[in-house]
């Protein structure tokens, strides 16, 4: 024996609407949950079905005191259906108008783009220009290190590093002088320590080499 098929959502909506149309009365939700099973709609799904009808303006609800009542009349469904029909007809006319506009735009865009030898030649030339443009961009990227802004930034970074190096050199000389003044008896041990860490007799302030300008050929670097 085959299992009985359950009702679809649309079928449940029709069954619950029929309750309102037959009685033309007002109902509490708990009353509808009792009436639903008599129409084949299980009580657990009545609330969701009623809410879907309310969302579609097929069932109305009003709060009276602390209770919420649901109601619907056949005339309400007729009015709702007429409103939906009017909206669909309006949308259809709007879409037809938009379609006609797009067809005209398409025709206008096709003008001057008919297949011809001149158009093929122009497209071929455009493709060649785009390829040359990309090649020049790649070549330009290779010379980014010679960009004036990049060179200026590197120059400033070198100046900062040079200043910091000489500042530490000055600190080392100050520390050596302090050690010599306060620990004269440990001169040999201090000299040995200096040599171990790389502070030899030729240790001095760092001087930047003179900048030699690059040769200029035909006005270019």
TrEMBL record:
Source domain of life: Eukaryota
InterPro entries: LZ3wCH, Mnd1, Mnd1_HTH
Domain named Mnd1 HTH: residues: 16-74
GO cellular component labels: nucleus
A Pfam family annotated for this UniProt entry: Mnd1
Localization terms from the record: Nucleus
Keywords in alphabetical order: Coiled coil, DNA recombination, Meiosis, Nucleus
One GO BP annotation of this record: reciprocal meiotic recombination
GO molecular function, one term: double-stranded DNA binding
Sequence ranges assigned to domain Leucine zipper with capping helix in this UniProt record: 150-205
Coiled coil: 119-146
Keyword Nucleus: yes
Function (record text): Required for proper homologous chromosome pairing and efficient cross-over and intragenic recombination during meiosis.
Family of the protein in this entry: Belongs to the MND1 family.
Name assigned to this protein: Meiotic nuclear division protein 1 homolog
Organism field: Nicotiana tabacum
């Amino acid at each position: 024996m085959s299992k009985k098929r359950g009702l679809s959502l649309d079928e449940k909506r029709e069954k619950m609407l029929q309750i309102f149309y037959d009685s033309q009365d007002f109902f509490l939700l708990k009353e509808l949950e009792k009436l639903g099973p008599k129409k084949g709609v299980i009580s657990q799904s009545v609330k969701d079905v009623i809410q879907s009808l309310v969302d579609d303006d097929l069932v109305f609800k009003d709060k009276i005191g602390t209770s919420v009542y649901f109601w619907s009349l056949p005339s309400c469904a007729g009015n709702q259906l007429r409103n939906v029909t009017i909206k669909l007809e309006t949308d259809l006319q709007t879409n037809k108008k938009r379609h006609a506009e797009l067809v005209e735009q398409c025709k206008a865009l096709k003008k001057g783009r008919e297949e011809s030898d001149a158009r093929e030649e122009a497209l071929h030339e455009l493709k060649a220009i785009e390829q040359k443009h990309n090649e020049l961009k790649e070549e330009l990227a290779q010379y980014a290190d010679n960009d004036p802004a990049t060179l200026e930034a590197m120059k400033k970074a070198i100046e900062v590093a040079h200043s910091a190096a000489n500042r530490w050199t000055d600190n080392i000389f100050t520390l050596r002088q302090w050690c010599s003044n306060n620990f004269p008896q440990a001169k040999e041990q201090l000299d040995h320590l200096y040599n171990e860490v790389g502070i030899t007799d030729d240790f001095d302030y760092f001087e930047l080499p003179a900048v030699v300008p690059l040769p200029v050929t035909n006005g270019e670097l």
